[in-house]
Amino acid sequence: MMKFSLIAFxxxxxxxxxxxxxxxxxxxxxxxxxxxxxDGFLRLDTRTGAVALCTTSxxxxxxxxxxxxxxxxEAEITRLTKENADLRTKLAARAGGSRSLDLPKDEDxxxxxxxxxxxxxxxxxxxxxxxxxxxx
Length: 136
What we know:
By secondary structure, the chain is α+β, with helices and mostly antiparallel strands. The protein has helices spanning 2-21, 70-94, 106-129, and strands at 32-37, 40-45, 51-57, 60-65. The chain has three domains: 2-65, no CATH class; 69-99; 104-130. Strand 2 and strand 3 (51-57) form a beta hairpin. The protein is elongated and about 85 Å long. The model has no long low-confidence stretch (mean pLDDT 78).
């Protein structure tokens, strides 16, 4: 019963100021949304995207801002975009400005197929030689 009253208190304590600060128009979501977690509540500011973990201890509600990773993600996206552009430039320079691949010539294909054929013939010969003589 005590846990339920703490949850109800926390919900009212966080929802009332949010509603008073920013009354949403009908059919429009409010500025803050609350989601219950095992440790308390997560408060999401729908305008800024800021997240806070709210807990109650001894009847006192406390909200701590969650660490922001957005800056790190933006920096990584910028780095990868630059790296991608550099690799495209290097690829274009290596291919002489064309984006087509250099396929092997017919002579190279013939050499590869001859090698594969010799390999398979030898393997078949070895397999035939290793067959057991006593078949039941």
